[in-house]
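Cross-posted from the bioinformatics board.
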Amino acid sequence: MAKIEDQWTTLVLAVFRANGTMMQWGDRFAAPFGLTSARWQMLGALALSDRPLSAPRIAESMGVTRQGAQKQLNLLLDEKLIQRLPNPSNMRSPLYELSSTGEVRYRAIEAAWKMHARSLARQVKSQEIGIANQVLAHLASLHHQDLEGEDQ
Amino acid sequence: MAKIEDQWTTLVLAVFRANGTMMQWGDRFAAPFGLTSARWQMLGALALSDRPLSAPRIAESMGVTRQGAQKQLNLLLDEKLIQRLPNPSNMRSPLYELSSTGEVRYRAIEAAWKMHARSLARQVKSQEIGIANQVLAHLASLHHQDLEGEDQ
DNA sequence: TCACTATTGACAACCGGTTGCCTTTATTGG
DNA sequence: CCAATAAAGGCAACCGGTTGTCAATAGTGA
């Protein structure tokens, strides 16, 4: 890997490829639980929050658009995996939380994932994952800044 | 970051987020060149190959499905950025290469990207990018194996 | 040679995300 | 208090990818 800028090119392509692979893998992993990658991720966002969230808040925390998050939320509602709560501070914008079915479902897939993650952990040094995390966060934040400046 | 398996969870989420950010950023970056992230990437695959490739080969090299690659190829053909060549070894499956317009277009965006990448290079240690690349490649390859075993 | 299988392209449906537009409700400043 | 603005939901169109199916061509092994 001669030129430094080529390393970045490689990194971006690696991100694209890893994303594709993980989505595909995630869909298969989640299928036995009646979930897809996207729904799993959305349940995770709700499960990890300490309190119910409104759709725009969830979108923000996941780094997707309001409409994108809403789409999944509506689907998860249809499947009774999440439920609405009245929002005391905004009548029009309900809060969302896992239903009891959703909690059971999420805990099951979470347990399975943790087992898998532990087996991954044996194959790559913890320190290196940490560095990869830092670099990716840096990559996203550098380019996210660019976007903020332009839009709206 | 206490548990080792949580690091992997973070990494996967970081990949998803970086992917979203980079696609969005790439679309804006490529727009002045009359390209999108996807078309840019596809032109790149052709430009970097030492010889014309058939659609299934391109798909393979990019890690997407045959149909997905074909879709973009057909669009790039419509825009006259690439051209077909008869494939001596398979009558039904033409080879694709950049047209002269496509070459000019690609060289222009490539030059702009390299400038950007050099400015990124000043912000993260080369060694760390290398580690991130390794980890991501490892992540993708571990899960890609899983997929291979199952499908077809 | 000829049947069987693999490869390929075309087409359509779907998935998850985006953008854009419109309407409704909250919020805020004068 | 009320007008202007911001926040939120709903809807539709699109983008880039997937899967699945079909028909046609290549490649193959008996």
